[in-house]
Design brief:
Oligomer: single chain
Number of strands: 0
Radius of gyration: 41 Å
Largest sheet: none
Length: 146
């Protein structure tokens, strides 16, 4: 009696796909759908397209920014100015709620206005001085001599 090697017997079993109908017919069960080979290929195609898009995005954004630089800067400046005005108004509103601050600011404003009228508007020579200062400031801001 020799020890003969026996080859294992192969028993054919049902694949999960074959029993899938049996599982889905039972109420209250959740069925997992096995991934198909084509859907994985499609997924890889979508990943590749998304990867190519993200790789070219910095170059595209740089091109768009260079093309529309001036309008983007103007829009940014306008938005910044709007935000600054809103913050300034909120600060002034908060200061206005403090007792005695609002009347103090009013007195300071009246005092400065009275000084300005006395300093620049009462005499003709000081009005000329104010006019020349305004023209000088205008030429500095605009950048032209007028």
């Amino acid at each position: 009696m020799g020890a003969e090697m026996q080859e294992p017997e192969f028993v054919e079993t049902k694949s999960p796909e074959a029993t899938m109908q049996d599982i889905t017919n039972q109420p209250g069960t959740i069925t997992k759908v096995p991934p198909a080979g084509q859907s994985q290929d499609e997924l890889l195609k979508y990943v590749e397209v998304a990867s190519n898009f993200l790789a070219s995005l910095p170059e595209y954004l740089g091109t768009v920014f260079n093309k529309y630089k001036q309008p983007l800067v103007i829009v940014g400046a306008i938005l910044t100015a709007i935000i600054a005005v809103k913050v300034l108004l909120a600060i002034l509103d908060a200061l206005n709620d403090i007792p005695l601050v609002a009347p103090t600011f009013e007195l300071i404003g009246i005092g400065y206005s009275a000084w300005f009228v006395y300093r620049y508007l009462l005499k003709a020579s000081t009005r000329q001085e104010l006019s020349s200062e305004i023209v000088s400031l205008k030429s500095q801001v605009v950048g032209k001599d007028s």
